[in-house]
Design goal:
- This protein has two domains: about 80 residues, Roll (Chitinase A, domain 3), CATH 3.10.50; about 50 residues, Thrombin, subunit H, CATH 2.40.10.
- The strands form two sheets. Strands 1, 2, 3, 4 and 9 form a five-stranded antiparallel beta sheet that branches. A four-stranded antiparallel beta sheet has the order 5-8-7-6, with no helix packed on it.
- The termini are close together.
- It has about 140 residues and is mainly β.
């Protein structure tokens, strides 16, 4: 099967990993395998590239620099808002997480509160893994 034959197909995989040097936060290494649509942006580019070259039944440990994962942390993704503009904004504290719904796409994303004052909260819209090197163990079970 060539790379182009895999584009848009589903890969059934087991995987485990997270940010290099930190605790494993994703563990789908047993039970029902994860389904990843290859080449469709569901996973970081480095994972898509890996799924294009792995053989069915193969296991690998992959280390992804930020450029092949979720990119570098972007300071433009950190923005301040008045507490009254955010649902439950009066209760938010530094370190809290909330789910933000993008106004145009309606996609829900995790957002971290990085600062809070009496009147404002500063939110970091970057992916939690932005700027981090990732390490994952993966096993390709099947391409369907």
């Amino acid at each position: 099967m060539t790379d182009s034959d895999r584009q848009g197909r589903r890969a059934l995989v087991y995987y485990r990993g997270g940010a290099l040097g930190e605790a494993v936060i994703e563990d789908l290494s047993m039970g029902k395998p994860a389904e990843i649509l290859i080449g469709c942006g569901q996973v970081p580019p480095g994972i898509d590239e890996l799924l294009l070259e792995m053989q069915v039944g193969e296991e690998r440990v992959i280390t992804l620099p930020p450029e092949k994962a979720y990119g570098q942390h972007d300071s433009a993704g950190v923005q301040s808002y008045g507490r009254l503009l955010i649902k439950n904004g009066d209760k938010l504290q530094t370190g809290d997480w909330l789910t933000w719904t993008h106004p145009a796409t309606e996609r829900r994303i995790p957002v971290r509160v990085v600062a809070a004052t009496k009147d404002t909260v500063t939110l970091d819209f970057n992916h939690p893994f932005a700027g981090k090197t990732l390490q994952y163990w993966m096993k390709l079970l099947e391409i369907v």
